[in-house]
Predict the 3D structure of the following.
Amino acid sequence: MNFSDLGKMKDMMSQAKAMQEQMEQKLSATVVEAEAGGGMVSVQMNGRKELLKLTIEPTAMGSNASDLELLQDLIMSAVNEAGRRADEAMKQSVQGMMGGLNLPGMN
C-alpha cells in the first residue's frame, strides 16, 4: 500500500465519520407517531426508538381488571408500531444517503 492509498483511506474514514454524525442527528430529529385502539393510546418516538410522548385518553381507563389489560395491550401495540415506523423512516433515510456514494450493491 502506498501513501496515496493511505490518503484515500483516511478520506474515506473521514467521510464515514461525517455520515455517522449526520445519521445520529437524523435519528434524534426524526419523530414518528402511532396510535392504537382508535386513538385511545398514542405515542411519539424518535429515530433512536426513545419514547418521547405517551397519551392515554381518559375513556381508556376502565373500572375492572380487563380494562387495565386492554390498556396495557394498547400501549404495547402503539409503542411497537412507532418502533416499526422509526425503522422505516431510518431505512429510507439511509438509502438516500448511501445512494450518493455509488457503492457496489447499495443502489
